[in-house]
Amino acid sequence: MMRDNMDELKGKNSAEAAPDGRMQDTSGAGEGEQLSLNDDRRVKVLSPGAMVAQRFFRNRIAVAGVIILIAMFLFAFVGGALSPYGEDEIFYRYDMIRKEYVAASENTSYRYLKADDEYGALLQAQTILAITGNKESFDYNGVTYTVVKEGEAFYSIYNGAKLIGAAYLDVISAEDSSATFTFDFQYHALLAYAQGGGDFTADGAAYRVDADGAITQGGDGVAVISRDVGRSNARVHAGVRRRHPDLVGQAGNLHPRVRHLFLPQQGALAGHR
Question: Do 120 and 145 contact (CB within 8 A), yes or no?
């Protein structure tokens, strides 16, 4: 009787309820063994590294970042071998640029004409001081020099009754770029222009300068007086005359600043070459 009760109790201890409510035998061993809730074998133990890796790979942004970093390292070390260009290769490009230009800037600094070697840089500096100070004379090395205002921005410098130089802002530009002018021509042209224009004689030849600064000799253009200092490309002259042939014959009626574009290139002119 006692043996039968022991066998029955043993049978109950060896049985356990399954998740679906059915009793399963857990007394045996093997693949079908069911572990109790407090059995240590039910807990899966992970190392710290495995736990970090598991959490990392669950984060999609982190995985994408690793992929980008790997791609960057691969490109840095392998990309050079795949690129058709060297690391120190320099690229050159040659372009042909054709420019036709006419530029001008206003002259704001006084320039000087020397009739005598006496009128050097030191006297020129004293001249500027006298002009800016509205003085009619200045002393230098015991000599008194007279500054005569002939017109707007044009002054004559005298040592007693002797003309030694001049200071001016308006510049004479020759119609023929190869032409040069003597002191006599420049002084009398600027003097006539400063006094409103008119006829003047220089180096034995007669000229005329109008109020716009155009200097002519016998109807032919010689030079232009202007405070605008210009530089131009010779191709511009030819191009302008080609595009506006109707204005070539009317150059005398054009403003001096554009008149020279329509005038033919003049040869050497007696008295100012």
Answer: no
CA distance 114 to 124: 10
CB of 263 closer than 8 Å to CB of 221: yes
- With a cut of 70, list the residues of the chain below it in pLDDT: 1-33, 35, 37-43, 98-104, 229-273
Amino acid present at 209: V
| Same domain? 162 vs 174 | no
Query: What does the DSSP assignment read for 46-89?
Result: --HHHHHHHHHHT-HHHHHHHHHHHHHHHHHHHHHHH-SS-TT-
pLDDT at 88: 80
Q: Count CA atoms within 13 Å of residue 251 on its CB side.
A: 25
d(CA 193, CA 151): 8
Residues 121 and 225 both lie in one domain: no
Q: Specify the number of domains making up the chain.
A: 3
In which domain, by residue range, is 70 found? 47-94
pTM higher than 0.85 for the full model?
Answer: no
Same domain, 105 and 183: yes
Name the 3-class secondary structure at 36.
coil
Whether 105 and 221 map to the same domain: the answer is: yes
CB atoms within 10 A of CB 242: 9
- Domain termination site, one of 135, 152, 168: 168
In a domain, 157, yes or no: yes
Helix (H) or strand (E) holding 13: helix 2-13
